[in-house]
Amino acid sequence: MNILYDVSERVATITLNRPEVANAQNAELLDELDAAWTRASDDPGVSVIILRGEGKHFSAGHDLKSGRANQGPITLERVYAGEARRYLEYSLRWRNIPKPSIAAVQGRCIAGGLLLCWPCDLIVAADDAKFSDPVVMMGIGGVEYHGHTWELGPRKAKEILFTGRPVTAEEAEKTGMVNLVVPRDELDQRTMELARTIASKPAFGLRQAKRAVNQTLDVQGFYAAIQSVFDIHQTGHGHALSVGGYPILTNLDEMKATIK
């Protein structure tokens, strides 16, 4: 199973379960993950949702090999449609689920991994967590759900994109991207404690508080920016196709090196 699901004390825990590939995201994992989010959202016995990853790393991002295998000729139309569904619509839907959500992040959270944790309302990071988006080396200006500016601020976002270097848990906490940094061996416990505290509050009040903050961001332009920058992301794919090569596997070994 790509996804594990459990409910305890009004807290649903969704676990990415591909530790052998650092929880890299193939289509099956993302579809199962979306179904798990929907299940938790629809369950009146769930007040808070935790997203976590099994194993050493939260997520190494998109599974670049299996994600492109056996799909026939690559065209911009097909790439756009597939990414719009799984990388943009899913993330926006998870962001707007009317229940508080917490991502528990350990190890590496690379590129597509950000599409999983950034839609969550809170992030608890282990002290070994590192966040990065190195896709500029593939000729693309940033991962599909472009929350960088909102999560890091404009200058830090540019630095991280231009250099591809990872952001440590402590640095992410300083920018406000991470709520809490804890020892690695306490990550699950501390995340659950936070979830239980939130779950003890009135569900309608939590829903309204989340809606208020998200709508404030949307009025400031968050939703429109995410949609428009997705099209900028697609021009990277279009450029690659126009010069005769789709570079999704180019520099794969260099990108893998960021996991170690």
Automatic annotation (TrEMBL):
TM regions (residue ranges): none
Molecular-function GO terms, alphabetical: catalytic activity
InterPro entries: ClpP/crotonase-like_dom_sf (IPR029045), Enoyl-CoA_hydra/iso (IPR001753)
Record-linked Pfam families: ECH_1
Top-level taxon: Bacteria
Stated family: Belongs to the enoyl-CoA hydratase/isomerase family.
PANTHER family tied to this protein: ENOYL-COA HYDRATASE (PTHR43802), IP11341P-RELATED (PTHR43802:SF1)
Protein name: Putative enoyl-CoA hydratase
Organism for this UniProt entry: Gordonia rhizosphera NBRC 16068
